[in-house]
Amino acid sequence: MIAFWVLAPIMVLAALGVLFVRKAVHAALLLAVVMISLACLYAVLEAPFLFAVQIIVYTGAIMMLFLFVLMLVGVDSSDSVVETIRGHRVTATVLGVLFAAVLAIGLGQVGLAPAVGLTEANADGNIEGIAAILFSDYVLIFEATAALLVTAALGAMVLAHRERTEPKATQADLAARRMKAYADRGENITPLPAPGVYARHNAVDTPALLPDGSPAPTSVSRVLTARGTVRSAPDMADDIDAVRRQMSGRPEPEADTSRAAVQGETPGDSQRPDRGGEQA
Amino acid sequence: MTPYIVLSAILFAIGAAGVLIRRNAIVVFMCVELMLNASNLALVSFARQNGNLEGQVAAFFVMVVAAAEVVVGLAIIMTIFRTRRSASVDDASLLKY
């Protein structure tokens, strides 16, 4: 019973978590907690075969399937908080609490005789016992299960399959399309410019420089541009000029030293190592 | 055996409430799985109560049916998502009127 009293609160809390977390991925992980705890309870309840099947089929296969579909649908697809039916959430919660109370109180009052236990039924081994029942009394249902599984596999294939409505584009088609885009809209035929000409820490977020010194916007991923994490290439070029001056020991140009004189009143400024003029 | 049955009842009720409350089709599906699991717990504990293995065989069949159901259900959700770009159960309302 110790295992039960340890696992039961965990299971109830995790199940409530499935109910209340916003993100579907978190719900899936909490459901996995419930299922693994349930497997442990099966072990306590003298069902070692179901213990293994629960972990392999439920947490192994079904939860993975859920997570795969979540990845396909979009991990951050969380519920909207807008209620389409007014009072629907409150009503559902009240109904759920009432249902739980009725079931728990009703079942709690059922007087059950002391459990017989499965020591006798499991005498030849749990798996052997289940097999003996499965392949005698339930053999027809077992056969029907085979048909069910085949139907499910076929159904999933039919549902997930998408008919190709246009022929697959070959390399020649792609090349022709690119030439047409060049002729019509002047898009470049060549691959896009590579980023990171003056990069110091992460080449991907620094745009390439065009011949006139301006940054090439096409050289940086659109995602980085949208996030605003693109570093400006001319600033980088200034940094590099400063480092080069520092290495050659030449003083900084006039504009820079005047700026340093203005900022020189701040105490930390004289310790900055990139002031080439002061160190030289 | 009673605590096990009560736990399974509580889990079943939580799953049912989840089906009513949540509107993401995938989470609704997870709550259905929770209900199936809760009923499995009841079957296994009654098997121990009565001292024969038929309850465990029934739980085994429930697991098989659940696996098949998940495969088809998730494929349907994928198809709906592909055509409507949404996994919310509120958006699939074309048969309403």
Task: Describe the overall structure.
The complex is a heterodimer of chains A (280) and B (97). Chain A is mainly alpha-helical. In chain A, 60% of the residues lie in helices and 1% in strands. Chain A is built from eleven helices and two strands, in the order H-H-H-H-H-H-H-E-E-H-H-H-H. Chain A has helices spanning 2-20, 24-44, 48-73, 88-108, 126-134, 139-160, 171-185, 222-227, 233-248, 254-263, 276-279, and strands at residues 208-209, 215-216. In chain A, helix 1 packs antiparallel against helix 2 (24-44) and helix 2 (24-44) packs antiparallel against helix 3. The longest helix of chain A is centred in the N-terminal third of the chain and has 26 residues, at 48-73. With 97 residues, chain B is mainly α. Chain B contains three helices and no strands. Chain B has helices at 2-21, 25-50, 54-84. In chain B, helix 1 (2-21) packs antiparallel against helix 2. The longest helix of chain B has 31 residues, at 54-84. The mean pLDDT of chain B is 88. The chains are: A mainly alpha (280), B mainly alpha (97).
In short:
The complex is a heterodimer of chains A (280) and B (97). Chain A is mainly α.
What's the helix and strand layout?
The complex is a heterodimer of chains A (280) and B (97).
Chain A: H1 2-20, H2 24-44, H3 48-73, H4 88-108, H5 126-134, H6 139-160, H7 171-185, E1 208-209, E2 215-216, H8 222-227, H9 233-248, H10 254-263, H11 276-279
Antiparallel strand pairs in A: 1-2
Helix pairs in contact in A: 1-2, 2-3
Chain B: H1 2-21, H2 25-50, H3 54-84
